[in-house]
Amino acid sequence: MKIVIVGSGYVGLVTGACFSEVGIDVTCVDIDRNKIDNLNKGIIPIYEPGLEDMITRNMKKGRLSFTTNIAEALKDSEVLFISVGTPPDEDGSADLKYVLAVARDCGKHMNDYLLVVTKSTVPVGTSIKVKQALQEELDKRNIDIEFDVASNPEFLKEGAAIDDFLKPDRIVVGIESERAEDLMKSLYKPFTLNGHPVIFMDIISAEMTKYAANSMLATKISFINDIANLCEIVGADINKVRKGIGSDSRIGHKFLYAGIGYGGSCFPKDVQALIKTASEFNYELRVLKAVEAVNKDQKLILFNKITNYFKGAIKGKTIALWGLSFKPQTDDMREAPSLDVVKNLLEAGAIVKAYDPIAINEAKHHFGDTILYYEDQYETLIDADCLAILTEWPEFKIPNFKIVRKLLNTPAIFDGRNIYDREEMKENGFDYFCIGIDTSKNNVKS
């Protein structure tokens, strides 16, 4: 089988690499000539564990190729995946101009039956617009070619995307014809041999499933953060509360970690888009509006703790940051809490020193020369007045606390991911602040 994937960003590259890994002939198309040239040289534009090796391996075997020529890519192809970006507009709605541009290109260049599948996260009803755009181009050509549209939303976790694709919890496919269903069954057969289910449904439901899934996960994060803030006030321990409620099989432990809010390319955008979709139908998603509001406030929690610790006098203070990406195992900083933390620290007059194992180059696009960057986590601590943990990278979990204590001007750690034990921090002589635990009575200095 030969397929085309339009869009060589995060989703497109992972999808293309994984399909080629099981023997499918994949051509990835992108309008960015520089990106395509780099990919053909083996230069991958994103960081994802295992992705570079998989792309290189399948390019050598001739199963994976990259081009800017969609007309050439469509020859003899049966399926085309749309994996382009859907950035949010100012009103929170998803911008579909890139998705519809691909649909029009299909109509301009296809010469045989084609199944056009939206892999991008798109609002409910997008399939109708895709079909219309494609048909309009065929009408302009005065040609009658059969085609189908389908929805196949991705459920990839950054940092574990390869494993998620090869061993999916479920594969959701929205279709409207038996031919489309048969093609998608054939395409995903290698991934279902071990019992991973393909769930077929109508296209509208598939589009809604993607938004509903991400919104539910975002809800769990905002819920536990809201409870964590209350725990600090009443004297409860959020880590113990999490274990207590997570042991209930109806709730579970996943996404119940207190912290400084969610970020990334999916949750913020998808929550906003679903709220906007509801408003277009004169319905208010009150729960999701609260989820969004809680998350916005949560990103200020660590800055407020630092400000309170120094009694408001943080102008001229040097703050060391460990972690800038929105989560470990990725260089993605879209909507990362670090963006808000750094912005507020700089506006308050603080000096910011930062380290991240992967995201430094990405951070420079956001912060430029307004902060100081380091290639060693301990180097950031020299002459720093405190340390703040923004991302739970594994290498931060068991540092040499003697060195940390020696290098810091003030023995203060602000743990935005709750990766340390407060009793251990007290024994090591630190003033320790985390999320969801009142640590003020345990600190060396308040």
Automatic annotation (TrEMBL):
GO molecular function: NAD binding; UDP-glucose 6-dehydrogenase activity
UniProt catalytic activity: UDP-alpha-D-glucose + 2 NAD(+) + H2O = UDP-alpha-D-glucuronate + 2 NADH + 3 H(+)
Residues bound to substrate: F155, L156, K157, E158, K210, F255, L256, Y257, A258, G259, G263, K327
Record EC number: 1.1.1.22
Signal peptide residue numbers: none
Any one biological process term the GO annotation gives: polysaccharide biosynthetic process
Record flagged with keyword Hydrolase: no
Highest taxon in the source lineage: Bacteria
Main EC class the enzyme belongs to: oxidoreductase
Keywords from the named record: NAD, Oxidoreductase
Limits of the UDP-glucose/GDP-mannose dehydrogenase C-terminal domain: 320-422
Pfam families reported for this sequence: UDPG_MGDP_dh (PF00984), UDPG_MGDP_dh_C (PF03720), UDPG_MGDP_dh_N (PF03721)
Binding locations of NAD(+): D30, K35, T86, T121, E158, K269, R334
Metabolic or biological pathway: Nucleotide-sugar biosynthesis; UDP-alpha-D-glucuronate biosynthesis; UDP-alpha-D-glucuronate from UDP-alpha-D-glucose: step 1/1
Active-site residue numbers: C266
PANTHER family reported for this sequence: UDP-GLUCOSE 6-DEHYDROGENASE TUAD
NCBIfam families noted in UniProt: NDP-sugDHase (TIGR03026)
Protein family: Belongs to the UDP-glucose/GDP-mannose dehydrogenase family.
Protein name listed in UniProt: UDP-glucose 6-dehydrogenase
Organism: Flavobacterium frigoris
